[in-house]
Design a protein that fits this description.
Keywords: Membrane, Transmembrane, Transmembrane helix. With 403 residues, the protein is mostly helical. The chain is 83% helix and 0% strand.
Length: 403
């Protein structure tokens, strides 16, 4: 017997968004340990994030139309299964090359969640709840960051970072079972299915969804561009916060992981909060401009913390980062929910996600290269600030165009 969309379905959406990033956040939280264990340097460690996000970029860019043609259940299984395999491979890693493969699989797991969860929102959740739910389910990424940043360092002290990956794999498989049960319990809204896909769905082969060939509107590409610029700063910061705290400010391994955990906790709150702001009708360009300016202030605080050796400034920077740059994703996804139909939602979400993951790919690579130079972390934080300046410029242009 099916029932209306409720907390179970919302938890399923949250888990689908959270599963893929779990490995990379866990590796980041234990970065100092992994670097010493594998005998690599900071720039090489950054290649793990590069491999992860490069695979996610390619997957989002190339598999969106394929995702439009497959069921929600199939895509949810793919998301959780790939995330679990990635964590399992990491647990078996005997060297850096195997860990790179695990990171790449983690990236592929992030090729589908935004598309399938956005489509589920359109087809199974009443219109009045969608934007608010988008904010909550997009907070899954930061929930993953929070859990991994707290749990992986503690587990690593007990069973090593590979053992921590095993615990992560078990968690993801358990989430998959719960998510599939929740999905099966909620039917699509009949009126939404009729309105969005109608005759196209009826003409599709049994068990498959129609593949739309329509060109995406300009708003999709503008959102993708903003996602790319913001993504540069987001993952350049996320991947290296723990290492920065440990190496530059003499934090312990667990305390270093706590910096990323705090960013994740603030990010969870921010995504839910900014989702509610969007639900009240605030325009996406105006909100993106606010977030870009706050993120720029955060980058400035990281630079100042480095120059002054100040833990207080570091915590200020972490809070600003979590409240701003980590909140952008929900605004981008909410903008899509306002303007894209369910029939092409997976492919549109794939394009915007590909933009974000493109930035995620280059950000850690850029940061790793810069902190290995004489400029160190100060050069890296300056580059992050430059990315957010570009974000502010693009958001201001979009806001002017909207007016």
């Amino acid at each position: 017997m099916t029932r209306p969309a409720g907390p179970g379905l919302l938890a399923a959406l949250l888990g689908a968004v959270a599963a893929g990033p779990l490995l990379l956040y866990g590796l980041s939280a234990t970065s100092d340990l992994i670097i010493r264990d594998l005998g690599i340097n900071a720039a090489q460690f950054g290649l793990l994030a590069t491999a992860c996000f490069a695979c996610a970029t390619v997957g989002n860019a190339s598999l969106g139309r394929l995702a439009d043609a497959h069921s929600d259940r199939t895509l949810m299984i793919v998301v959780f299964a790939l995330a679990a395999v990635a964590l399992g491979v990491a647990a078996l890693a005997g060297g850096f090359a195997v860990l790179l493969v695990a990171a790449g699989l983690s990236g592929l797991a992030q090729s589908f969640p935004n598309g399938v969860t956005n489509r589920i929102l359109l087809q199974r959740v009443p219109a009045g709840q969608r934007i608010g739910w988008a904010g909550i389910k997009q907070s899954g990424v930061q929930a993953s960051q929070l859990v991994a940043s707290l749990a992986f360092p503690v587990l690593a002290v007990w069973v090593g970072w590979r053992g921590a990956s095993v615990f992560g794999m078990v968690l993801v498989l358990a989430l998959m079972v719960l998510a599939l049960r929740a999905l099966a319990a909620v039917d699509p809204l009949e009126q939404e299915v009729e309105h969005e896909v109608g005759a196209a769905r009826a003409a599709a082969p049994p068990g498959r969804r129609p593949v739309t060939r329509a060109r995406q509107p300009g708003v999709v590409w503008a959102l993708a561009a903003f996602g790319f610029l913001n993504g540069l700063g987001v993952q350049a910061t996320n991947v290296y916060i723990p290492l920065f705290a440990v190496r530059e400010l003499d934090f312990s391994l667990v305390a270093g992981g706590a910096t990323a955990a705090v960013a994740g906790a603030v990010g969870v709150t921010a995504r839910i909060g900014w989702g509610r702001v969007m639900a009240r009708g605030v325009s996406a360009p105006a909100l993106l401009l606010v977030l870009a300016l706050l993120a720029l202030a955060g980058a400035g605080a990281f630079f100042a913390a480095d120059a002054a050796g100040s833990p207080a400034l570091l915590w200020t920077a972490v809070a600003l980062h979590g409240a701003s740059a980590l909140g952008v994703s929900v605004v981008l996804m909410a903008a899509l929910l306002r303007s894209i139909s369910a029939a092409s939602m997976a492919s549109a979400s794939g394009i915007v996600s590909a933009g974000m993951f493109g930035g995620f790919t280059l950000g850690p690579l850029m940061m790793g290269a810069l902190i290995s130079t004489a400029g160190g972390f100060e050069a890296g934080w300056a580059a992050v600030a430059g990315a957010y300046i570009a974000c502010a410029g693009l958001a201001a242009f979009l806001a002017a165009r909207r007016r």
